[in-house]
Amino acid sequence: MATTTAAPARTIFRRPASTTGFWSWITTADHKKIGIMYGYTAFIFFILGGLEALILRIQLAQPNGTFLSAAEYNAMFTMHGTTMIFLFVMPVSAAFFNYLLPLMIGARDVAFPRMNAVSFWIFLFGGVFLYTSFIFGTSGAPEGGNLAEEVSRLGAAPNGGWFGYAPNSGTRFSTGTVMDYWAIGLQILGLASLISSVNFIVTVFNMRAKGMTLLRMPVFVWMTTVVAFLLLFSLPIIAVALFMITFDRTLGTLFFDAAAGGDPILWQHFFWLFGHPEVYILILPAMGIVSEILPTFSRKPLFGYPAVVFAGAAIGFMGFGVWAHHMFASGVTPITQAAFGLSTMAIAVPTGIKIFNWIGTIWKGRITLNTPMLFAIGFVAMFVIGGLSGVTHSIVPADWQQTDTYYIVAHFQYVLFGGSIFGLFAGLYYWFPKLTGRMYNEATGKLHFWIWMLGFNLTFAPMHWLGLNGMVRRTWVYDEGLGLDSWNMAVTVGAFIIAIGLLVFMGNWIWSKRRGPIAPMDPWDARTLEWTIPSPTPEYNFGVDPKVSALDDFWHRKYSEDDEGRPVRRPEADQLVAELEDVGLHPPAPIHLPNPSYYPFLVGLAFPILGYGVIYNDKAFGIPLMLLGVLVLVGSAIGWGVEPLEEGHDDHSDHDDDGEEG
Amino acid sequence: MAEDHAAHHPTPRQYVNIAILLAVLTAIEVALFYVEQGVEEFTTNMASPLLILLAVLKFVIVVGYYMHLKYEKSLVKNFFVIGFVAALVLYAATLFALGIVSGVF
Amino acid sequence: MADVAHVDDHHDVHESTGIENRKLGMWAFLSSEFLFFGALISNYLLFKGRDFGAGTVYPRELYDIPFTSISSFVLLMSSLTMVLAHHALATGDQNGTRTWLLATGMLGSVFIGGQVFEFTEFVLEGMTISSNPAASAFFMLTGFHGAHVFIGILMLLSLYGISRRQGGLTEAQGLNVELVGLYWHFVDIIWIVIFTIVYLIP
């Protein structure tokens, strides 16, 4: 990769210029580097969340376990959920969006490259901030409770569940600082995603290649767009809720204090108004990924592309209308229950449409059962199971029985792990060659898949009947003799099998990245634009701006169809691929890219500083920290605002006298 | 940027007129408030819809002319309206579920 | 490998929709703000009618409608000066732009000053943010609105400062004036809603 030089800037500190080396990562505005950072960071959190799960399962392997205290258990399940949702699935989806979105629409970067970087840094620092509660957090025992007075470090983390229900999350029942870390940490993380969502929406609408109308975009891009809108409209709601709980805890407001006339149910409404769209945010990227993989390895187009797109949009839209189904047992009125029961049943319809279309895609296709395809098909199967249990929750009286039992856990683990995570891993294998220029080891990949099929189902299938047999959620012990013992042990064994499978994956990734066989530009004979450029992806993405004239344009340039609709490779296909690679490696004209910048990193740093200041506002260093955070934030924002996206011009506007337009 | 602005740009005179209109509407609102306070026959049920109507008018005028939405492409209008409608529907439903039949009364 | 220079392209080569990136982004962001302020307003609507027992000082008892009306008027007029600033720049009048930007910032500051005065009065009359849930909701709603105004003032003053330092704003920077304008008007329309729903409606 060429090292670039930039024209001298009129800023106080010299503008960073390098595109290689450590500092190039800190200052990058390149969507691919940002995507890679998201991916590795999210993966580290995946391991942490997985360790939390294993710790939980050790405690629950036997009745009346003594591995964890109740306080530690609460912290572990809270952090497991919070980590997996906010620090793994969402960021790893962001990794995919970041890396792939511009490639799939034929762009050189996203609409706002530095904003893209700041989203990553805010996420990273927010996640680290949340985890420092293990070091600095205090989790006092509420009066009259049955938790230990002294809570170990393992218990000194947020412990109110990933959903932080009031009034438990208030100062009366959660003394100490851990729930402040939770509320402020989540607030910071939400900001990162909100910024991303604006970025992706503008990118999709404005930066598509010539000829790529909205209905010629890959399904993955559509799902990304729907997710961006879901984030855009749901995050402000939880932002308000988190401000409310933070103010209740630090300023003495009374929103959720029932004794003073506040309303704890209000928390539930606001939380789930966000929380339900959130789960569609978690699943739609995987659905998008699978919609790309299934056609490729069936050598058939996606069945019913418009229906899949429309169903995805419908799921997003309807996802805003079902939130109170998380509250059927919270004392809402019968009208509310009936209305939301109905809307929840209705949302199964677009979901079903997608499932039938995926099945229709592989039906009578020429199927290659490699690792990405196995995970993709596994996704469909596991997601159907999870979706079916989900529909049973929509029947309100049944849900009263199911709520707060392991049956609910079984549902969401099937859709989140069997669904989202299987889908995301399918994507990791599928795009590995594009990212690294090498091929992963196929046998090891298949091994990973089968270990996970075994481990995942062994872990989560028993939870269906454990729940229906009465095992409640979030309980740190259960009594013996209730018929729960042996299945809990099986679940724990399954969890460790999952861990082994993950180690297999990691080994494959690390080894193949360095020693895997070199992969061609288009190893899967695929359909979308990212396969028309060299692997690993050049810094500038495309040698020349692509033009498309159809959905799956690349495929149609390689293949025509015979009378029975089967693909027939065109004689010029191989040469086309070779030419694309050549122009990708040797662009004919100079290409212009945004300069690196320090400011996104600095802006990201400001938020945890502010956060610590707020939490410790009663200490001597609290207010100064807050002021420092504000200073860093405002200063960096102004510096950023003044800094041009690229250097080499006297001011922003002379694109007129330049003549070169990238 | 220059193109679509030059085409549909109210003049400063028109902007000032709009501002005067907004001020008048505000004055009417405040007057209504006092009428509602003082005149018992002018019940809550009459004042509130009128006040809302006036607020909506001001809202639409500022959005349409000052924010220029009247002259923008429909994609921009759609972006803006979606959030507004979503907020209206979701929060009305939430307040209904919380036992406040209508948000205002 | 290509010689990749870092030069131009911060202004997108072609916008598929014909609307500038930053403008589209600002409209999307403002749309999301409806959800933010909607939650705060709903919060207030939930608590405003509740009974918190004897001795409660309710927000509605303390409102000074004439005072707040004047504040509202000031904010409305600041939208006028904002749009005049944008117009001035479009016609190349850099001095006028600066004047109107400053005027907008100053009117916004008067509004904030009025808010601070009003809140101080309320506190002195016995209603703080922790007095009762309705008070909490009132202060949170108006407080966040005021914070938005404050950020807007910072942006206006930044534009003013940049214009002074450079001797005028370029056409590309003019887009920023438009964007700050959109934000400013949005904050104004939120106040239009707040003034009616919180202060005027019984």
Q: Please give the share of residues in helix of chain A.
A: 55-70%
Q: What proportion of the residues of chain B form beta strands (DSSP E)?
A: under 5%
Which outline of chain A best applies? globular
Average of pLDDT of chain B: 84
Number of strands of chain B: 0
Number of strands of chain A: 3
Rg of chain B, Cα atoms, Å: 18 Å
| End-to-end Cα distance of chain A | 19 Å
Which bin fits the share of residues in helices of chain B? over 70%
Sheet with the most strands, sense and barrel status of chain A: 2 strands, antiparallel
Q: Which strand order do you get reading across the main beta sheet of chain A?
A: 1-2
What series of H and E elements makes up the topology of chain B?
Answer: HHHH
Report the uncertain regions of chain B.
1-6
Mean pLDDT of chain A: 92
> Helix/strand-derived class of chain B?
mainly alpha
Protein chain pair with the most extensive contact, residues per chain = A-C, 77 and 55 residues
Order of helices and strands of chain A: HHHHHHHHHHHHHHHHHEEHEHH
Q: What can be said about the biggest beta sheet of chain B?
A: none
What is the quaternary state of this protein?
heterotrimer
How would you briefly describe this protein structure?
The complex is a heterotrimer of chains A (662), B (105) and C (202). With 662 residues, chain A is mainly α.
